[in-house]
Amino acid sequence: AVTRHYKFDIRMKSVTRLCHSKSIVTVNGKFPGPKIIAREGDNVVIKVTNNVQNNISLHWHGIRQLQSGWADGPAYVTQCPIQTGQSYVYNFTITGQRGTLFWHAHISWLRSTVYGPMVILPKRNVPYPFPKPHKEIPIIFGEWFNADTEAIINQALQTGGGPNVSDAYTFNGLPGPLYNCSSKDTFKLSVEPGKTYLLRLINAALNDDLFFSIANHSLTVVEADAVYVKPFQTDTLLITPGQTTNVLLRTQPTFPNATFLMAARPYATGLGTFDNSTVAGVVEYYKQPSSSSSISVNIPPPKKLPLFKPTLPALNDTSFATNFSSRLRSLATPQFPANVPQTVDKRFFFTVGLGTNPCPGNACQGPNGTKFAASINNVSFVQPTTALLQAHFFGQSKGVYTTDFPSNPPFQFDYTGNIPPNNTMVDNETKVVVLPFNARVELVMQDTSILGAESHPLHLHGFNFFVVGQGFGNFDKKKDPPKFNLVDPVERNTVGVPSGGWVAIRFLADNPGVWFMHCHLEVHTSWGLKMAWVVLDGKLPNQKLPPPPSDLPKC
Ligand code: C2O
Fold first, then answer.
1. Residue 34 near residue 74 (C-beta atoms within 8 A)
2. How far is CA 483 from CA 327, 338, 403, 471, 476, in A?
3. Of 243, 12, 6, residue with least CA distance to 114
4. Is the pLDDT of residue 370 over 70?
5. pLDDT of 230-265, one tens digit each?
6. Which ipTM was obtained for this model?
7. How far apart are CA 191 and CA 188, in angstroms?
8. Pocket of ligand 1 contains residue 516 by CB under 6 Å
9. From the CB of 515, is ligand 1 less than 6 Å away?
10. Coil, strand, or helix at residue 154?
11. 530 lines ligand 1 (CB under 6 A)
């Protein structure tokens, strides 16, 4: 294992897409940001310097941060933001993980432009549990807004109106040829015939689950959220924001007389407004010259080949989505076991959904005198003005957060009994759940889908969890648990809570610190669909959170 040093300079850069230029926040002037590459076991040290007017913090999405919670990054949860002119060094060791993850800004909506791939290779001389690919290519999905995203979210929070939708989706920052004024900004995947490529797919979009497909090519899924899965073939994938998926692409055996598009567009069950456009990229075949000449030249294909486009599921194809997620299973082999907690110490039932603020004294300015909120157990999380982790570590939680989440009695939701608007009013509070070290936790998340149906990609910091069950309608606490998969459930860090349904997860609380959990649809996070877990120290020295680094930013 080695230490890998990175310097991330947060600076403005003018970028043009769709014939529209704007100055955006970037890392090192790059959009998308630089790739981090490391091996399992490596120590990664990233010095972040803020040279823009906005406060910033960065999050290493999916990295477990064992005993390094100070490096996790969500603003006001594990740290105060890095202010203009200041620096912070994120220092963590990658323990027991290998695969594709990503990093992104974790404050306001800055992750719309501040994000990049993280590739964690296996330890040296440890092979993949699948055929060695000829090449590996990260493809990070994003969203491009012509408008300034900070202005969009500020307005959405003040007026309660839905935010402007994006103007395009992107592959590695490029919208592609299906948008106006965009064909020169097209992602090109150059391949040779008869080879296997590993595509590292990352959904860094702000607000939409995405279907992805490549015309006339089938894909083999081998990994989700940096955990190997039992390989399976599919023409189309579904990836929610916050999820990553590795697939093997086997190219056609001989040079094809055609050009193929890859494309992504949303899976959206809601009636609300969303960007229903399609990003496309091109798969370009190159023939290596067959001569034994020592000069290797790529011969481009002849121009004007017929163009094939992939067929993507309908925007609201929930049966595809359900079927796809049920196919994801852990490898569960002796080398890569699925350590699913077989028994449970702490059980939780959380409702997740959209709601409204009560708005005392008619203070709300939104449509019809309401203001959008989103909540867990009808608690809409209020961001504190100092970091939760600091408050916890120094025993100064008073006035920062309370530990009575879920509220007492916990909010019970029932599709057959609850009707709006009575069950949509939220409390605005900063509440956490405290867990003893090594608690085996089961959490059922029930979607309430009353104000606009939408599935919620719930992301948990600091842990991977096992998705032991999912279903539609009300969760039945007698009938459903016996059907849980405790053998080979998929292990991941982000799961879609199906619209009109529920999902059950289990995890071992073996990581002391404060861990954020939130919907990875940025607009829902902004409206309060978030909470935090406090995991106490264990007794042994290696079960305790060390003190903060001396350069930890102050609020
Ligand atoms: Cu990818 Cu809390 O984030």
1. no
2. 16, 17, 32, 11, 11
3. 12
4. no
5. 999 999 999 999 999 999 999 999 999 899 999 999
6. 0.99
7. 9
8. yes
9. no
10. helix
11. no
